[in-house]
Design brief:
The complex is a heterodimer of chains A (425) and B (144).
Chain A: H1 23-28, E1 43-44, H2 55-67, H3 78-98, E2 106-109, H4 112-124, E3 133-137, H5 146-155, E4 158-162, H6 172-177, E5 183-189, H7 201-210, E6 215-218, H8 230-233, E7 237-241, E8 252-256, H9 258-263, E9 274-277, E10 282-284, H10 298-312, H11 316-335, E11 340-342, E12 352-357, H12 362-370, E13 374-375, E14 377-379, H13 384-390, E15 395-399, H14 406-422
Parallel strand pairs in A: 1-13, 3-4, 3-5, 5-6, 6-7
Antiparallel strand pairs in A: 2-8, 7-8, 9-10, 11-12, 12-15, 14-15
Helix pairs in contact in A: 2-10, 3-10, 11-14, 12-14
Chain B: H1 4-7, H2 10-17, E1 30-36, E2 41-49, E3 55-63, H3 66-79, H4 84-99, H5 125-140
Antiparallel strand pairs in B: 1-2, 2-3
Helix pairs in contact in B: 2-3, 3-5, 4-5
The chains are: A alpha/beta (425), B alpha+beta (144).
Amino acid sequence: MPATDVAAPLWASAPGTRLPHDVERVRRDFPLLGLRPDGRPLVYLDSAATSQKPQAVIDATAEFYATANANIHRGVYRLSERATALYEGARATVARFLNAPRAEDIIFTRSTTEAINLVAQSFLRPRLAPGDEILVTEMEHHSNIVPWQLVAAERGAVLRAAPVSDRGELDLAALERMLTERTRLVALAQVSNALGTVNPVREVVLAAHRRGIPVLVDGAQAAPHLVADIQALGPDFFACSGHKLFGPTGIGVLYGRADLLDAMPPWQGGGDMIASVSFERSTWAAVPAKFEAGTPNIAGAVGLGAAVDYLATLDAGAVRRYEAELLAYATERVAGVPGVRLVGTAAEKASIVSFVMDGVHPHDIATILDADSICIRAGHHCAQPLMARLGVGATARASFALYSTRDEVDALAAGLERVRRVMGR
Amino acid sequence: MSDLGELYQSVILDHNRHPRNCGPLADADGEAEGYNPLCGDRLRVWVRFGDGDVIEAVNFEGTGCAISQASASLMTTAIRGRTRSEALELFDRFHALVAGEEGDRPAGLGKLAVFAGVRAYPSRVKCASLAWHALRSALASPST
């Protein structure tokens, strides 16, 4: 994945060191991976849906509740000050991980979905006039389609989608041709959740910016593979989720360009997002508090900070090389099963193998694999327009993370042979 | 984990590979679509009445997993020749079979009893019942 060379300046390998990624050591950090349902190893190949959590994240969350829990920002006692410091420290940690210019550019949300909705409602909605256009791609997750549809319908704007090839690659030239004087925003995934395609986000950002059009990048599937670098990619907004990044559920991240965030109205009203309130008028707190109404997911943010701290103990370059090799191996093994056809064969991919099997529905594949405690996803992957474009109703999807192994890929391949036997293929 | 053979019985695999009464039905008196938003699977069911209240033919068409395809196919064979109220009563018994309490095995289901294994797979209950819900809608559709 050449695109990865720009990423993660935090942990670029020291010159001369090319130590391999020690996956067995890493696996010991993730307690759930040691489960043995029915006396056999659990084979968890659904990390694109949600990742497992290292003990450090579980401990940090429990430790917060056991030793530091208090509400943040307004308490004048030391316990509250400590909770505030942990919460704001997590913000700074996440900012460094994503290489955002400043910690204040990071807003904690509930999820990637909520981050995108925030941009749709607070940034885009006031700027949309009838006939204006929002440009996405055919490979977006529903969460990067529906929020734009909602504001488009309200404002009489048009949602357009840049085409994807049969291999699942974005047609960059076509996307550029679809940038018009009416385009108010481009929104695309850095990595497709359904296919694993890595999109040429930097090129899209440059093409859009040449025309003065802002860009939102859905980085939910990119961040866990250590390829998300906000300053290198240059988008105006970037969203990702804690739970796919080895952190807790219920915590997400929105990065926004400082001048845009400053100019945007609040999204939700409540405590913590105000400077002053009277019944005549209220004034808003500065970014990021302006967008964090109410008591946030403090423990979730602390847990996410711990996840990012955990990742910082690994060699990002070694992780990326390891994941690329594992993906190549998985691609070869899955494609080698008779009757299997890969869906999504882009030149640039990250840690996802999506496939169909002749005469066997993906749900049956997933149920039969589960009998061997192999967890994969089957269905439309919240990307129904992409499934329609590629002419499949659903696919089976195995997805990998920095703790996945070749043994697990072998188990998947053997499991797929069993699927053929059970289904009489 | 339950034995896979309980779920993928040979009758189910046979109906999946060779679905009966598959395709649009001419002169249907009622039709309806079943849609499972969780998986995106869709199927359509047509019914035609013969003398009085007796269902003369039921057809289905759609895409889905082996469970939903076989369930639709077996349903069409089980419903033919029954009255509307008998069909609705069979719906209730089938639903109790796949989604009911353990130990609650409704009688009189004939071949449909092969779906008893589904209850061990909660995420697959909707697959087995998709065609039946479409049938119930088709029986209630205005033209019938």
